[in-house]
């Protein structure tokens, strides 16, 4: 679509006429305003997965075991909730919209293993024991919901439907890695499960969705006492000072040690910070800070242990 600059009205002298807007702008604003229900949906970014086959596939991906406790964020009218309940031991479903929450309760009334909660999921306290997070979540709330998940002590996994762009950004889909992914990599694995075409949602969003999966590692890649050094090093690298990762790290570490750590991790001296795979960061920090077993511990022979070409 081509975007055209609005025409400026001018008086005979050639000077612009102040205080007037093109008539088409007002008409377009009224055309896109919609009714109260559509406004509420846009405010909550509510695009519900409506294809039965897609709902079934998602439920299979989100529930790892028949006895699993699943917490669902943004349950909507319950169509995903019911599919989760058919595979899980129990489901706690949160929905903030009272109208949708009523439909959720009605749909799940006969499901003994479902507890419906009307309220803001982000204000909820996580279960005390292990649980799995699921949800066809509001796109506008993705970052906050992911943040909630990462700080929940009992989270075993999170399988969320997000915008495709968000999932790609967090999983290195463009050959570049985000700061959040790198910071949490020693404790969580990030992967994209697949694209969800926009046509499978109602109302149809402007972009495709994707299944994003976070999994807590059974054995962290670094010992707990090393996480402080790791996070400080990552934050230093992502400042971008000096233009390259090497230049940023050399602001606080000796050049020879930085160069040795980069070689061990297989990172080119001129690499940008986002070019380094999270596994490479684990190796880099392990060598830079002399962390025993940090150079690839638990990485399973991932890409961080081999030079990247």
TrEMBL record:
Residues 54-218 form the Ribosomal RNA adenine methylase transferase N-terminal domain. Keywords: Methyltransferase, RNA-binding, S-adenosyl-L-methionine, Transferase. S-adenosyl-L-methionine binds at residues 47, 49, 74, 95, 120, 136. Residues 14-38 are annotated as: Disordered. Gene3D superfamilies: Vaccinia Virus protein VP39. It holds the Pfam family RrnaAD. InterPro entries: KsgA/Erm (IPR001737), rRNA_Ade_Mease_Trfase_CS (IPR020596), rRNA_Ade_methylase_Trfase_N (IPR020598), SAM-dependent_MTases_sf (IPR029063). Residues 18-35 have a biased composition (Basic residues). CDD domains: AdoMet_MTases. The keyword RNA-binding applies. The keyword Transferase applies. Belongs to the class I-like SAM-binding methyltransferase superfamily. rRNA adenine N(6)-methyltransferase family. PANTHER family: DIMETHYLADENOSINE TRANSFERASE, DIMETHYLADENOSINE TRANSFERASE-RELATED. This is 23S rRNA (Adenine(2058)-N(6))-methyltransferase Erm(O). It comes from Actinomadura napierensis.
